[in-house]
Amino acid sequence: MAEVIEIARLGLTDQVAARLRTQLIEGRIAPGAKLNERVLAEQMRVSRTPLREAIKLLAVEGLVDLLPNRGAVAVQLSEADIVHSFEVLAGLEALSGEFAAQRITEAELAELRALHYEMLAAYARRDLSNYYRLNALVHAAINAAARNPVLAATYARINARVQSLRFRTNQNEAKWKRAVAQHEQMVEALAARDADALGRVLVQHLHDKLDTVLALLRAGEIYPAAARKA
Question: What does the pLDDT look like over 214-229, one tens digit per residue?
């Protein structure tokens, strides 16, 4: 009986974590904002125990910072943090793409194509929430096809902290259209097993994201200048 209760409790924690993760990525919980346990528990109709466990999970992922005397706060990066994170991510994406082009199976390629087509359907509907979810799954599939767990874990840890920033980059129609075109190129390069081409488009994809994020940041559209970290 105790084991059944534990499984149910963990299941609820994962559900709460998923809902919080979406709120953080989509900016419904603003960068730098304190996670108010009482309010969140009421909104989600759960007790504070699974909520606190979910917050701990998100802290491990890098979406939340646990600060002394402040509690849990939605991650907020300085401009330097953002630049450094995207620089490293671009290198990791390129390496992941190189390995994936060499190691992806036909079954994995077919699954990745299916995710890509679902993503295109979300784009056609201008359903940004589902588009971003599927976009992330495409990148995760490329990482998985690289068959390097150290690379995948390193990428996931750094990428988690910039997810909300990446989400914001697709709110400009022209930039969103360009990102979709780059995803088309990624699938073509993978199908051709062209490691160089895939690496180039993945790096360009990250560089474009960084340029957009920095422009939004400097315009005060991500978080107010007064709230930025030094």
Answer: 999 998 888 654 344 4
